[in-house]
Design brief:
Two copies of one chain form a homodimer.
Chain A lengths: L8 H8 L3 H8 L7 H14 L5 H6 L6 E5 L6 H16 L3 E5 L8 H9 L5 E5 L5 H9 L4 E4 L10 E4 L1 H14 L5 E4 L6 H16 L9 E2 L5 H12 L7 E4 L2 H13 L9 E3 L16 E3 L2 H16 L8 E4 L2 E3 L10
The structure holds a DNA duplex (16 and 16 nucleotides).
Amino acid sequence: MPNPSSITLEDIARVAGVSPMTVSRVLNGKSGVAAATRQKVMAAVQASGYVPNLNARALAGNQTRVLGMLVPDFSTQYISELARGAGHAANQAGYELVLYTHSHAQQKASTHVTLITRGLLDGLIIVLPDIADQQLEGLHQSGLRMVIVDHRHELKSLPSVDADNYRGARLMMDHLLDLGHRRIGFIAGRPDTRASLERLRGYKESLQLRGIEIDDQLIHPGNFLQAEGVKGAQAFMQLDQPPTAIFACNDMMALGAMDLVRDMGLRIPEDISIGGFDDIPMSAHFYPALTTIRQPLFDMGSAATRMIINMLSDIENPSHQLELKTELVVRSSTGPASN
Amino acid sequence: MPNPSSITLEDIARVAGVSPMTVSRVLNGKSGVAAATRQKVMAAVQASGYVPNLNARALAGNQTRVLGMLVPDFSTQYISELARGAGHAANQAGYELVLYTHSHAQQKASTHVTLITRGLLDGLIIVLPDIADQQLEGLHQSGLRMVIVDHRHELKSLPSVDADNYRGARLMMDHLLDLGHRRIGFIAGRPDTRASLERLRGYKESLQLRGIEIDDQLIHPGNFLQAEGVKGAQAFMQLDQPPTAIFACNDMMALGAMDLVRDMGLRIPEDISIGGFDDIPMSAHFYPALTTIRQPLFDMGSAATRMIINMLSDIENPSHQLELKTELVVRSSTGPASN
DNA sequence: CTGAAAGCGCTTACAG
DNA sequence: CTGAAAGCGCTTACAG
C-alpha cells in the first residue's frame, strides 16, 4: 500500500476505471451515478486509504468544511465550554472545528483573521472580539461568514449569540437582596464588552428598584481575570463600611474575591456572601461551592455553529441576534446578610 | 477599495506593472529583487489590502505555515497551558497554531488526522494520543511531521516531549514520607498513558526504598477527571485503616479528593494531606492551595512546536525524545501525618 | 534582476 | 449516467 498522502483522485479514477469527474461525484455524494460505478469507486478508495486534498478542494471553488473559532485565549473554562458546544454541532453537520487565538500575533488582528480565513475556513465564530467594530463590519461585508459570541457593543447588523446578561444580573441581585443584603459590591468585567455593561446595568437597576442608592465605591473595575477579583475585594474590604456581599462579573473574579476574603480570615457565607457569573464547571468545586448565574455556554457554542452552517447553506436565518436565557444556580457561597 | 478577498496576486502584478512571479518573490521575502521593484509591489499590496490565498499557496507545493495541535478535549488547564506555549513558539517563528479535537468525530481518528492534515497543516502536535501506536507510526512513516506530547507507551521512534513523571512522583512521595506519612493512597491516571504508569512506578519505588510494603488497597484506578478523584478518596476513606495522605495523579483528581474529604468533615491538611500533579494555574486557588508537582506545561508546548519547525527546516534535531524536569511545589494541602 | 510556462489536485459548468 | 476541458491562485523549475 503506497503512502496515502500521495494518492490523488486521478489514481482512484484509474484504478476504478472511470473518469476523475465520476470519482469526484461519488466522493461528494452527488446523485446521478450508477450504483455499480459508485461501488467500484468506493472500493478503490477503501483499498488505497485515499484522503482528498482539502486545499485543492477549497481552491477549486467550493468549501473546506472546516469552521474556525477565534478566541481571546485558551485558558478559561468559559472558552472550553463554548468550544465543546461548537465542536459538537460542527461534527454533527459534518464539519471540522478548529480553534485559534491571535493574542501573540504581531500583525494586526484583522489581517490575521483575513489571512487564516482566506481559503482555509468556511466560516468563523469570533468570541469576545477585540477587533474594532468597524473592521468586523468590513470583514462581514467582504463576504466572510461569521457570528460573534459576546460581542462588543451594539453591532446590530452582525449575526451574534449572547446570553441574557441583564436578566442574569437581575437574578443574582434579587437573590442577594432577598437574603437581606443592602451593601453589595460589584466587580465589573472587561469594559469593552457588552456582556459586562449589561451586567452592570442589571446591578444598578436592581438596586434602584428597591430604592437603594448606588454607591460608586461599591463598583470596582475588572477584566474577567482572577487577579482583578482579588483587587476588587481588597478595595471593598478597606472601606469604612464594607459590603456584606460581593457580586463578581464572572466566576474567575469571584474566585479571586473568595481567595482574598478567606485570607482575611472571614467565613463565606457567614461573614460575607459571594456570587459569580458563568457557571463554569469548576465553580461547583470552589470552596464553598459558588452561587452563580448559569450561561448556557455549550448551547451558545452550538447555536453559533448552526447559524454559520445555515448561512453556508443559504438557508434563511431569521434570528440573526440570538439571546439565550440565564438562570440562577444557588450553591453555598451566599447566605443571609450578617449585619 | 474592492473586496480584499477577491484580489489575487495577478491583480497586484498588474497594478505594480510586474509579473506575478515577481510579486510572489517579494511576498515570500526572496532575494534577487531590485529595491525599486520591491517598493512598487509593496505599495500595491498595502493599498489593496491583499492577502494571499493559503490554499493556492499550499497546493502549489509549498507549505501553509500553519501547525496543528490535536488534543483530547479543550476543558482542562493542562491543555490550555500546553497550547499557550505552543502558540507562542509558533507565532515567534511566523507560524499559526490551530487547535482541534476529534472527540466528537464519527470517523476513525486516524482518517480524521490525515484528512485535516492533508494540505491544511505543515505539522501536528498530538497531545495524549488515543490513537493506536501502530497508526501513529504509519502516519509518521507517511511523512507527516509530528511530535507527541505525553505519549502512550514506548514509541521510541517517534519524536516526543514529556515531563519527568517518574522523578515528579518520587519528589511528591519523598515530601509526604518526610512529613511522616506511611499510609499514602494513590489515585492513578489514564492507564493508557505512559505518564500515569511512570507516576505509579515512582509511587511504588519510593515506598520500597523506605521499606514500606505496598498495599494494593491504597492504589485506586483513575482517568485524570475530577469525578474519579472523588471516587478514589471515597474508597480510601472506607478502609479499616484509611491513609493519612492521598497522592492524586493530577490536580483535577486531587480537587475531587479534596471535595470528598471536606464533605466528610475532615480538615486538610490537619486530618489528611493531599497532593496533586501538573500544577495547573487553578491549583494555587484550590482551598487549601494545593501542594503539587509542577510540569513545565508552557515550555513543553513551545518545545514541541520548535521541534516540528526544525523538522520542517530540515535542521538536524538530535534530541528527538525530550524530557523536561518536574519540581515540587509545596503549598497548604500537605502537612505532618496526623497519627 | 525578471518573466513565460507548467502544474499542484480538485470542482464547476458544459456536452453528450 | 459519464467524460473532456478549463480554471481556482499560487509556486517551482527553467530561461534569459
